[in-house]
Amino acid sequence: MKPEHEKIMNEYLREIALQGRPTMKRASVLNIFFRYLEDAGFDLFRLTVAEAQELQTRFATATREDGTIRYSRSSVGNIIVSATSLFEYLRKKRYLPSNPFREITRLRREKPLPKNILSEEKMDAFLRHLKEFWKGKDLIERRGRYKAHVIAELMYSTGMRINEAASLTAQDVDLLRGTVRVSDPKTRTKRDTILNEYASKVLRLYIDTMRSYVLFGKNGADDTCLFGARYNLQMWLNALLNEAGRELGLPKVTSHHFRHAVGYHLLRGGCDIRYIQEILGHKALGSTQIYTKVDKEDLKSVIDTYHPRRLYHEKP
Predict the structure, then answer these.
(1) Who has greater pLDDT, 309 or 283?
(2) Cα–Cα distance between 97 and 76 in angstroms, integer?
(3) Is 291 in the active site?
(4) What is the pTM (predicted TM-score) of this model?
(5) Treating both helix axes as pointing N-terminal to C-terminal, what angle do 73-92 and 3-18 enclose, rounded to 10 degrees?
(6) Is 35 a catalytic residue?
(7) Which of 161, 211, 260, 265 is catalytic?
(8) Does the annotation count 58 as an active-site position?
(9) ∠61-38-82 over CA atoms, to 5°?
């Protein structure tokens, strides 16, 4: 690295260290950035938007000796984020008039599925375990598990996010039509989600009979919210789900797994991806297409079912 680049990078790292932000990973990423900048022959202080765009392309297309891609889209995104932050620092220090990385068209990051999405069978066992809330050791635990059971069935039916569930009111639920009106904080829009028959029955019992019992005496409960909490519901629910998963010997389960499980299980069941897009409220089909990724178990099943050698019963 050129001495002037090293000096600038160290100044920047000291600045973010004073802000209490970690520097080790940022230093590693910026070393990569400066290596490519220097190899391209670009001037740090005269970098144009076109050159910043070309740098991103170089990161995205860099290969190893065996021809494989060197940096994933996520890694490229991290490099560009670090470069943007560095150039913003240089702009504020008046080394630069503008930040070219603010103007480039960024690569869309891959949205991988969580590694621990439960299979249909394991999800059924998990939901049945939550349903047995009466097995809790005391009244507090039984009430908590019952509320978790209701939220889990609601989320697995509709695919809504936990923050969407937390902001629901009783007026958002239309049990006659079997729908729930959800406010999407990402797009600032509203959409109607669909309740399956079982989730509709669970929610009706909760609203008509059990809600006042579950929320009675809860300090800080918000009476306007369906589940009595707007801000701490996710932390509470994830802790309970994780404990329930351990009891069943399952990997870590969080509230967001229900949303991914809806898309994944519907697609595996033969549901058209356009319907899944509508159910999950995705604006772009690309967001839904992550569920088309198949795992090794699926591939083995396909081979065993469709490969022509299955027709022969010869012993090897």
Answers:
(1) 283
(2) 25
(3) yes
(4) 0.62
(5) 90
(6) no
(7) 161
(8) no
(9) 65
